[in-house]
Amino acid sequence: SQTIHQWPATLVQPVGSPLSLECTVEGTSNPNLYWYRQAAGRGLQLLFYSVGIGQISSEVPQNLSASRPQDRQFILSSKKLLLSDSGFYLCAWSNRIGTGSRPQHFGDGTRLSIL
Amino acid sequence: SQQGEEDPQALSIQEGENATMNCSYKTSINNLQWYRQNSGRGLVHLILIRSNEREKHSGRLRVTLDTSKKSSSLLITASRAADTASYFCAVQGAQKLVFGQGTRLTINP
Fold it and tell me: What mean pLDDT, rounded, does chain A reach?
């Protein structure tokens, strides 16, 4: 069966420090991968998605970047964190083979607090 | 924007009652999906309804879709305390899902 792992679960970082959040998927190949941010009590904002190794689409201008160095690995990074980067970050995957409807499967998220 | 908008924002009912949440969207869609999120956790996919479907069931869940009104509803029957969570609708575009702001459902024992 397919599983998705995100770490760390919680992270407290000072303003101006770098960031690296990692997400890995097991049990599937060639997935679409997604990074979302969720503000408290709100919906999800899509930050990045990837349809293959090295292929990254950015949805909103921001202080963050994403990379996909391996088929099932998705990394969210920042060189210098801002206070506004605080939030709940979620990684998700979906099947890519074929067309049509594809549910997304989420990790348990990383709670990022910037001090 | 294709964004789904849920209504109500919050719903509190007694255990055993039915809960109905609504979702409206603005553009044509491939499908509409409903997700559940327990506090502090990731989202869990509940049910997907395609644009050519009008109703779908899964256990105690019933989803309807009215493409002429650009709206969907999620009905949870015989609610349980464990159903307490936030519920999100999401509309499917070519590669992306666009999520609404969610309905916070509280089931009181």
Answer: 92
Mean pLDDT of A1-29: 95
> A50-78 burial by CB neighbour count: b if 16+ within 10 A, else e?
beeeeebeeeeeeebebbbeeebebbbeb
Binned at pLDDT 50, 70 and 90, residue A91 comes out as very high
**Which pLDDT score is estimated for B96?**
79
| B97 lies within 8 A of chain A by CB | yes
Beta bridge pairs of residue A49: A34, A57
Partner-chain contact B30 A100, CB within 8 Å: yes
Looking at the complex, report in whole angstroms how far the Cα of residue B5 sits from the nearest Cα belonging to chain A: 10
The residues, any chain, with a CB within 8 Å of residue B59's CB and separated by 6 or more, are none
Of B71, B85, B76, B90, give the one whose Cα is nearest residue B23: B71
Q: How confident is the model at residue B76 (pLDDT cuts 50, 70, 90)?
A: very high
Chain B: give the shortest CA distance to residue A42, in Å: 5
Nearest CA in chain B to A10: B40
Judged against a pLDDT cut of 90, whether residue A53 lies above it is answered with: yes
Number of H helices, E strands in chain A: 0, 11
**Any CB–CB contact under 8 A between B103 and chain A?**
no
Chain A neighbors of B41, CB-CB under 8 A: 108-109
